[in-house]
Design a protein that fits this description.
CATH topology: Rossmann fold
Radius of gyration: 18 Å
Strand order of the largest sheet: 1-2-4-3-5-6-7-8
CATH superfamily: Alpha/Beta hydrolase fold, catalytic domain
Distance between the termini: 22 Å
Number of strands: 8
Largest sheet: 8 strands, mixed
Shape: globular
Length: 273
């Protein structure tokens, strides 16, 4: 575990080095960005990270501000703040060459926002059940966060959750409640700067977007693909929002294939010792 000062914030970062190599060439790097509230980098430990490292990719995971083990300031939760954090983190890690970004849910919004800001620093973007920050996104986030803050303040909620889901799950939900009730997240996220369609069209790196067929976001697939010249969308059958957990193997296949298509990877058998 490492705590890195990025953008004036103590950020929890984990690195899973590539386990294969091709001589002196540095391995490609993927940065995995998790979702909002109950999520953290630990989600990737049990899904994509080990597989990517085994395939010859240097994997970086970090906890967003206010989540996991990263510092929780009382204010500063606009999308722009998360983009500043990512930019500062990449600078502090002194990465060589463009990176591949993989974002789950809100993490995909961050990944796409970074590609819009810094096109030369991004080799590809993979978005899992995610969308770019638009006016419609802002309004939806305002409704969802306000509703979540109200529900997580309900008397007796956590006692019910412990009985139904156990202490581990309830601990993560308590952490989400603290984020909503002790910081400016609820009002900051909807106040974030958004992208219009021209700004979305300007993102020219390869973009892979995965949606659950039962999710409301699946309806965006045709629209998103129509805006981006190098975009592939995949709708995963029988899945709702949690595609990363519900269809981990397929998600890994698709994203690893996407990264392989846009970066040379080591051949099988070139193992680092």
């Amino acid at each position: 575990m490492a705590m890195i000062d990025a953008n004036g914030l103590a950020v929890h970062v984990e690195r899973m080095p590539a386990r294969t190599t091709t001589g002196t060439a540095p391995p490609p790097t993927v940065v995995l960005i998790h979702g909002m509230l109950i999520d953290s980098l630990i989600s990737y430990y049990f899904t994509l990270a080990p597989r990517f490292a085994a395939a010859g990719i240097d994997v970086i995971m970090y906890d967003l501000r206010g989540q996991g083990l990263s510092e929780r300031p009382s204010a500063g939760y606009r999308l722009e703040d998360h983009l500043d954090d990512l930019e500062a983190l990449l600078d502090r890690l002194d990465l060589v060459g463009p990176v591949h970004l993989v974002g789950n849910s809100y993490g995909g919004t961050i990944a796409f926002g970074h590609a819009a800001r810094h096109p030369g620093r991004v080799a590809s973007v993979s978005m899992i059940e995610s969308e770019p920050a638009t006016g419609a996104w802002s309004r939806k986030m305002a409704d969802n966060l306000a509703r979540g803050a109200e529900e997580l303040a309900r008397d007796g909620l956590f006692e019910e959750l412990v009985e139904k889901h156990g202490k581990h799950v309830t601990k993560r939900i308590r952490s989400a409640a603290r984020l909503l009730h002790s910081t400016t997240t609820v009002r900051d996220i909807p106040a974030s700067r958004v992208l219009d369609e021209d700004a979305i069209r300007a993102v020219d790196c390869p973009v892979l977007a995965l949606y659950g067929a039962e999710s409301e976001l699946a309806a965006q697939a045709d629209w998103f693909r129509s805006l981006l010249p190098r975009c592939r969308t995949v709708v995963v059958p029988d899945q709702e929002h949690w595609v990363l957990v519900g269809a981990t193997e397929l998600t890994g296949d698709l994203i690893l294939g996407w990264i392989r298509a846009h970066t040379p990877l080591p051949a099988a058998g070139d193992v680092i010792r």
